[in-house]
Specification:
The chain is elongated, with a radius of gyration of 21 Å. The strands form 2 sheets. Strands 5-4-3-6-7-9-8 form a 7-stranded mixed beta sheet, sandwiched between helices. A two-stranded antiparallel sheet has the order 1-2. About 35% of the residues lie in helices and about 20% in strands. It has 2 domains: about 10-65; about 85-270, Vaccinia Virus protein VP39 (Rossmann fold), CATH 3.40.50.150. The chain has 11 helices and 9 strands. Helix 2 (about 20-30) crosses helix 4 (about 50-60) and helix 6 packs across helix 7 (about 120-130). It has helices at about 10-15, 20-30, 35-40, 50-60, 65-70, 95-105, 120-130, 140-155, 200-205, 210-220, 240-250; strands at about 75, 80, 110-115, 135-140, 160, 175-180, 225-235, 255-260, 265-270. The longest helix has 15 residues, at about 50-60. One of its GO terms (biological process) is methylation. It is an enzyme of class 2 (transferase).
């Protein structure tokens, strides 16, 4: 991608070969401008260094790298999160899980976020509910480092634990368990498409039928939930019925699924008996 020094901000915004929103995001990032700055400095011309920086960013996007990884940030639940290729990019669909958690979490409630990644779910809950005691675990030290930074940036009090699912929290109990685990089946075509090509595969797929992580969580959560405590899990667009069946087989009550903004059953949960 050839970006020439001396071009104006306005000309670049109109002429870059990306979607208008992506043009704006990369321009702001490369030039250190706000969205307002793009307007007020529209006739500003860019330097050689800025041209080279912008060209490199556009080239990365043209090769398919997600915008969130290029700029290192993504908004989620109204908060700013740092993201790297060590963690999944937070998505609007997952805000449904946060909303449900906030609606079902009792005052002074203790909540466990399993497989926290960037910390998006745990930080959003802790930021909104200052009374809650939020614990977040992940098997990846790199992910936990990102989650720790995001908790600090957003002023959220989150306890972070390195753990392979329930391994490191023996004997601990919570009022709620939430999770957005790997749920894409091995060989699913989506894994080789779009942003997913760049995201950590272990956070996307269980390298099996897409349900193995969900089975582990469903089987193990009753040992860590107070009676009547909620387990809420995000899952794939076609997995709701299977997840409801697994919950019922393990004795959960009030089992239900909730639809995202696209009308897809995206979160399923139940209460521990």
């Amino acid at each position: 991608m050839d970006v020439k020094a001396g071009a104006t901000v306005a000309a670049l915004q109109a002429g870059l070969p990306l979607e208008p929103l992506e043009n704006r995001i990369l321009l702001c990032h490369a030039l250190g401008l706000t969205r307002v700055g793009l307007i007020t400095q529209s006739e500003r011309t860019i330097t050689d260094t800025e041209a080279a920086t912008l060209a490199a960013l556009v080239e990365r996007r043209l090769h398919g790298e997600p915008i969130a990884y290029i700029v290192g940030r993504r908004e989620f639940f109204g908060l700013d999160f740092r993201v790297t290729s060590a963690v999944l990019i937070p998505r609007p669909d997952t805000e449904l899980l946060v909303e449900l958690a906030l609606a079902h979490l009792p005052q002074q409630g203790r909540v466990l976020d399993m497989g926290t990644g960037s910390g998006a779910i745990a930080v959003a809950i802790a930021h909104t509910r200052r009374d809650a005691q939020v614990t977040a675990l992940d098997v990846s030290p790199a992910a936990l480092d990102i989650a720790r930074q995001n908790a600090v940036t957003n002023g959220a009090r989150v306890r972070l634990v390195q753990s392979d699912w329930f391994a490191a929290i023996s004997g601990e109990r919570f009022d709620m368990v939430v999770s957005n685990p790997p749920y894409i089946a091995k060989g699913d075509a989506h894994l080789s498409q779009g942003d997913l090509r760049f995201e950590p595969s272990g956070a996307l797929t269980d390298h099996a039928d897409g349900l193995s992580a969900l089975r582990i969580i469903i089987a193990g959560a009753p040992g860590h939930l107070e009676p009547g405590g909620w387990l809420l899990m995000e899952h794939g667009y076609d997995q709701a019925a299977q997840v409801r069946q697994l919950l019922e087989e393990h004795g959960y009550v009030d089992v239900a699924s909730w639809r995202d903004l696209a009308g897809i059953e995206r979160v399923t949960g139940g209460r521990a008996p």
